Amino acid sequence: DNLKGNKVVPPPNTVRIDGDDPYLVVAADKGTATFSDIANSVSMAYGFWLGDAFASGGSAGYDHKKMGITARGGWESVKRHFREMDFNCQKQDFTVIGVGDMSGDVFGNGMLLSPHIRLIGAFNHMHIFIDPEPDAASTIVERKRLFKLPRSSWTDYDASLISKGGGIFERSAKSIELSEEIRKRFAIGKTSVTPNELIGILLRAKTDLLWFGGIGTYIKATSESHLEVGDRANDAIRINAAELNARIIGEGANLGVTQRARVEAALGGVRLYADSIDNSAGVDCSDHEVNIKILIDQVVARGDLTPKQRNALLAKMTSEIGLQVLVDNYRQTQAINMILFDPMGVFDNQVRLMRMLEKIGRLNRTVEFLPDDETLIERAATKTGLTGPEIAVLMSYAKIWVND
């Protein structure tokens, strides 16, 4: 349906079974700016009331990659995990293994967010990058260069900056000869491995942070089959949550870890939330943009602001919007951690909330991988409350219920 002023105008020659519903926005997921502009031009050609607020991130919207907003939101999670370990990742060196490359929005922006990142390994669909003893100061400069280089890949990385024994390897190679330095860094007994074996070694490696920026599901629960994961392309390299040796997982990308695996990892002492928490900043930024455009367009319609002035105003607000979005990420993780601080103090309430939501048909625990009654009795007996990933899901349901 459309809106003309405050009046809802249904589409002509259409039988409507539902009520009035003039609100529809779309997210153009790949190449956002280009596709958003196309979607918005269609919206305007039809005289749809949202105009160019129909698809966020167009040329008169907020460019997520330029703002680095999704990665910066995820980094709020990472910083909080480190703070809980009494460690300042903005002032102290730490090791990272990553999934992605510097041309990607979330991986690229993420790997520039601290001058103390020591990226010891990373992989994408084509290459495996290994730097056994990286120098944080010089490597961030090189990553910045790659990020700015259009369509860069790991092979564009200046090999002279890679520490002794490191290198960039093709995933299409039959086997990879391992230097003494790589073997020592990752405690590998063999002198040569296949590319898939090497990726498996990286995913199992001892590291402070495992940062997801690429596409694919790389960690499953021990109880899950590869078939249940539903990502055939990565069956050969996927590992079980029990094999993880990372202290923290940052999910800049979606579905890097299955929900069951998140819970298993959290119970095993890994610090993580969920992709819906870590990478929510992009969607949050779009929400801000759409709402601001709806508001300001009323002023434009009255003639108190020209479209050109409106666009200038939107651009001027970029850093403030970014800040508002990051405050959401900061508070969201704070709320989860306050619950984690006293898990048994709120456990009964959480159980009652889940049962109440189930009773009114608002929640299906099986679908959301929340603990069944038997598991809850076990958790109560061992004084193990809900994990961060479980709290993240339950909190979302609680918010929807409170909002309604």
Offer a few descriptive terms.
404 residues; six-stranded mixed sheet; alpha/beta; 16 helices; globular; two-stranded antiparallel ribbon
Structural write-up:
The chain has 404 residues and is of the alpha/beta class. It is 44% helix and 12% strand. The chain has 16 helices and 12 strands. The strands form 4 sheets. Strands 6-5-4-3-9-12 form a 6-stranded mixed β-sheet, sandwiched between helices. β10 (219-220), α8 (226-229) and β11 form a beta-alpha-beta unit. The chain is globular and about 70 Å long. The protein starts with a strand and ends with a helix. The model has no long low-confidence stretch (mean pLDDT 95).
SSE order and pairing:
Elements: E1 2-4, E2 7-9, H1 32-45, H2 64-67, H3 69-84, E3 94-99, H4 105-110, E4 117-123, E5 127-130, H5 136-148, E6 167-170, E7 176-177, H6 180-185, E8 192-193, H7 195-204, E9 206-212, E10 219-220, H8 226-229, E11 239-240, E12 245-251, H9 259-267, H10 275-278, H11 281-301, H12 307-316, H13 318-341, H14 347-359, H15 373-381, H16 388-403
Parallel strand pairs: 3-4, 3-9, 9-12, 10-11
Antiparallel strand pairs: 1-2, 4-5, 5-6, 7-8
Helix pairs in contact: 3-11, 3-13, 11-13, 13-16, 14-16
